[in-house]
Amino acid sequence: xxxxxxxxxxxxxxxxxxxxxxxxxxxxxxxxxxxxxxxxxxxxxxxxxxxxxxxxxxxxxxxxxxxxxxxxxxxxxxxxxxxxxxxxxxxxxxxxxxxxxxxxxxxxxxxxxxxxxxxxxxxxx
Length: 125
Description:
5% strand; mainly alpha; 125 residues
């Protein structure tokens, strides 16, 4: 019995032929835009938050950072890629109590770390 006869009698299971996937090349624009020179408008995102029943920590944080009344406490850095706590005591006594229903910096910090935000410490030059 030849090898080809052996394959036809069912003793060897043929391997299925795989179809080749054709993936179209896409071009992604990675042009950097520096938003530090743009004027900030007091954008009201409260309507966006009203639609969702569960507000995640990043949604609340973005809402806080977008409010002009909190800019002296916590604000975006000029380049727009990070934020900075300017007054820790006011953050705890005002922002955390109003927005997170607690008055503990440790709880705020735990949420920051839990969502994967990274701490960048400014060193004097």
